[in-house]
Amino acid sequence: MAKSVGKKDVGLLKSVEERALHKKEEDYHKQRQIPYFHKDCVSNILLRLPLESLQHARFVCKPWYNIINNDLFIDTHLRSSESVLIFQKIVPNEIIHQFSSTVMPQEHPNTFSVEQSFLQSQPAPIIWQPVTNRRSRLSMQYMEFGEGKSKLGEYKLSCLGIIRATCNGLILLDNKLKRGGLVVMNPVTRKLTALPLGTLYPPERQSYGFAQSDTSKQYKVVHLFRDELGYVNCEILCLGTRNWREVNGPSFGLFGWLGYSPVSALGGLHWIPHIDRSDYIVSIGVDTENFQTTQLPKSCRTHDRIIEMGGSLCFVTHEGLSIDIWNLSGAVWTKQYSITRGSIIDLVPLLSLRISGDVIFRREEDGSFYAYDFKVEIMRKIEMDHKCFPRIGSYLPHVNSLVSWEAAQAISD
Amino acid sequence: MASTDDKVILKSSEGECFEVDMAVASHLQIVKSVLEDCEGSSDKVVSLFIVEAKYVAMIIEYYKNYVELKEKHEEGGFEEKLKEFEKQFLEQIDKKELKGLVMAVNYLNAPALFDVVCTAIAKHIENKSVEYVREYFGIVNDFTAEEEAQIREEHRWAYDGVNDD
User: Fold this and answer.
1) Closest-CA residue of chain B to A55
2) ipTM score here?
3) Do B148 and A413 touch (CB under 8 A)?
């Protein structure tokens, strides 16, 4: 058999050779084209990218776009992102002339103006009200903390309104194009939506809370305002619906002051209701929409606060030369920790960092920041890469993320 | 001395064999479950069909050090020592090999190393242009010009500077 290599066999040999060649070519193309890269690997790599890079990674290809533009991915990324403090400052030396379609003077070419974005989205041109011209434009910035230092971050975003509340990477902002109006936006993605008008009251007589329901995942804006008779009323807006709903407010006399921002924890929003010497907190359940009070273990003084720590609600209070941290569980406060070294009497607790667990304080006397590290039990003054700046409004806990109040949309192949 | 019972043989896609301590191999979930399935059998060879020898060697090196460091620093300091080693370990791997390694580690289901390699790749592509990332992963752009224009409009924030590589 082996001897008889006839013409027929030569033909066979040739076709085998051809096929091998063809295969080689095919393999070459396969290698050049998309090598099989497991989706798990891609999403795990993308989860470790900072937000700036994620924004670019969207444009790589459709599968990547869909991995990133996915609610579960966004949520997982949010969970692994560290907290920051968001704040606003006045844009220096700038007079706003006209808010027309002409280019405004800007410190960054890519600066995004909240108001201009709304004006552009209006179907018909509106005449700019001159009153807003006298207002200063505010730029939005954030502070990151790590290894005893703080770094300043820019959103390249300007607006006229003040941030009223934050939740999960979203902010609630005054809408200066409409008196008493509000905007919800994500300063990272710049996605924004105007909320319908609620009851109008001057800022010192109202308080806004912003929270997400643990069960329905819906975002709610809670508006408290004190009427002429001294009653504190409450209305709630669910994002996605277009109207404010009145709910039963807290009992008469519970609130002495509405100036403290509420803290979101344990499925509720919690207020310290007096400037000084509060003996209780006032809370509203995000799902139940009922108000209740909880006695504090001791009176809350001007440098004491409640903060959210790892999902729990904590009361951080000065006790002599130390700072005690109490944890609320089932209406009972338990002393969880005592900071005995390095505490200063005018340190005001601002937030607990969600990943590192450090608690950030701000010293009232000079506006400097301190961080308490539970692992090494040290209170450290934070080195800043920037000067203290004139700031407007408060420092609010925030987290930079891609979250939205609407479900993410996938792009089809 | 460890008896041969404590050893297992891992066979790469090319058929190359690696004798490994059980303590090391048990970090690879897939090996662990294969061995559990054939418990009692004297044959302790596990074929890692799709994993090339060079990656098998890297993975073994990582977990050998992991196990040694863990033993040596039982009382503390393990995490810092491991970090130090991970840095050296990653320095000897070129950027193209990282891709092969992450797929191998994903297949073998070895969480600690998976985390290390994913982080390394993320660091590598962090400030790179879209074009670079496509080339690195061998991805073809499947957006049409209209689609790309549309999503660029939707995500205008994305435009700021990148380092080209």
Assistant:
1) B158
2) 0.89
3) no
Q: What is the pTM of this model?
A: 0.82
Do the Cβ atoms of A321 and A368 come closer than 8 Å? no
Walk along chain A (413 residues) and give the pLDDT tens digit of each residue.
444 444 556 666 666 666 666 666 555 544 444 456 778 899 999 999 998 889 889 899 999 999 999 999 999 999 999 999 999 988 875 544 444 444 444 455 678 888 888 877 765 555 554 444 456 789 999 999 988 899 998 888 889 999 999 999 999 999 888 888 899 999 998 899 999 999 988 888 999 999 999 999 999 999 999 999 999 999 999 998 889 999 999 999 999 999 999 999 999 999 999 999 999 999 999 999 999 999 999 999 999 999 999 999 999 999 999 999 999 998 899 999 999 988 999 999 999 999 999 999 999 988 899 999 999 999 999 998 777 666 788 899 999 999 999 888 887 76
User: B112 in contact with A at a CB cutoff of 8 Å?
Assistant: no
Q: Do A60 and B121 touch (CB under 8 A)?
A: no
The topology (CATH level 3) of B4-126 is: Potassium Channel Kv1.1; Chain A (3.30.710)
User: What is the distance in angstroms between the Cα of B119 and the nearest Cα belonging to chain A?
Assistant: 6
Count of A-B CB contacts under 8 Å: 91
CB contact under 8 A, B157 and A59: no
Q: With contact defined as beta carbons under 8 Å apart, do B62 and B89 qualify?
A: yes
Contact A61 B142 (CB under 8 A): yes
Strands (E), A227-366: 232-238, 245-247, 263-265, 268-271, 278-285, 291-300, 305-309, 312-319, 322-329, 332-339, 347-352, 359-363
Domain map of chain B by residue range? Answer: 4-126, 129-165
How many Å apart are CA A318 and CA A338, to the nearest integer?
10
Nearest to A33 among B122, B140, B148 (CB): B140
Enumerate the residues of chain B whose CB falls inside 8 A of the CB of residue A77.
none
Distance from CA of A21 to the nearest CA of B (A): 22
A58 at interface of B, judged by CB pairs closer than 8 A? yes
Strands, sheet with B17-21, edge to edge from the N-terminal-most edge strand: B17-21, B7-11, B45-47
Scored b (16 or more CB within 10 A) or e, A237-276 reads bbbeeeebeeeebbeeebbeebebbbbbbbbbbbbbbbee
